[in-house]
Amino acid sequence: MTLPAPSPSTAALVTGASSGIGAAIARELATRGHRVVLVARSEDKLREVADQVVAAGGTADVLPTDLADRAARAELLDRVADLGVTVDVLVNNAGFSTTGPVADADVERELDQVEVDVASVVDLTTRWLPGATQRGRGALLNVASTIAFQPFPGQAGYGAAKAHVLSYTQALAAETKGTGVTVTALCPGPVDTGFVAAAGFTEEEAHGSVPRAMWVSAPAVARAGIDGLAKGRTVVVPGAPNRIGAMLAPLVPRSALLPLIARGHPALRRGRPTR
């Protein structure tokens, strides 16, 4: 089984669903008949996405949650159960990036990044997976990044976090083979979303440092991710240029690649972190 068929008693839970890729994934799942449970910190933004889903004929629930809070994460699946549904599709999309040299970083912000980008993925997956394997059905989509394929000076913590997500997901795909549970890592390249601004880049910096051909829209990324999940693919990299880059990055000597990334990274060129 790949992507479970929607039913009145099941739902797809999407974290980081208030904007960008997460909102696009929620809308994509809703168009395929899935009830979606939207999770993020901002209730107002989640309501806007829920309204869009409902206006398109879907069903959406809103569960505001701070995924950096371990106690809040521990309660999340029980809160979904209180809605009267079982999570058949789990999408771990929530994440953010700090930028700039680690020597100038804010410790609490760096640790929050680990909590949201790494710990929440492990936490929710570990709580959800036993039930899914027992039921013999389920689909897990973890959103990583093309940054996961090499270290990334200027976003050292974020790159390491996404490398963890990719490796973790690939291992889970092997562990769950034959259980009826599908596990996929979605590794988008640059996407025009609020994520770029939240990371501290201006539009000029973002588009000036990455070739236009590598940019993919959030709806296209969402569609590629859900299509890949439905086909049982372990890793999905949307966009041909990004797929080529992901294949080549591990082959280039780090001694040559990392100085190039460091010299080209806007936050390092500025000589200060952006938070």
Ordered list of secondary-structure elements with their pairings:
Elements: E1 10-15, H1 20-31, E2 36-40, H2 43-55, E3 60-64, H3 70-81, E4 86-92, H4 107-135, E5 138-143, H5 156-175, E6 181-186, H6 194-198, H7 203-209, H8 218-230, E7 235-236, H9 240-248, H10 254-264, H11 266-269
Helix pairs in contact: 1-2, 1-8, 3-4, 4-5
Descriptive report:
The protein is α/β, with parallel strands linked by helices and 275 residues long. It has a single domain, classed as NAD(P)-binding Rossmann-like Domain (Rossmann fold, 3-Layer(aba) Sandwich), CATH 3.40.50.720. The protein contains eleven helices and seven strands. The protein has helices spanning 20-31, 43-55, 70-81, 107-135, 156-175, 194-198, 203-209, 218-230, 240-248, 254-264, 266-269, and strands spanning 10-15, 36-40, 60-64, 86-92, 138-143, 181-186, 235-236. Strands 3-2-1-4-5-6-7 form a seven-stranded parallel beta sheet, with helices on both faces. It is globular, with a radius of gyration of 18 Å. 43% of the residues are buried.
Question: Keywords, please?
Answer:
275 residues, alpha/beta, Rossmann fold, 7-stranded parallel beta sheet, 13% strand
**Approximate strand percentage:** 5-15%
The major beta sheet can be summarized as: 7 strands, parallel
CATH topology: Rossmann fold
Name the quaternary structure. single chain
Output the radius of gyration. Answer: 18 Å
Tell me, briefly, the overall form.
Answer: globular
CATH architecture tag: 3-Layer(aba) Sandwich
Strand order of the largest sheet: 3-2-1-4-5-6-7
- What number of structural domains do the residues give? 1
| CATH top level class name | Alpha Beta
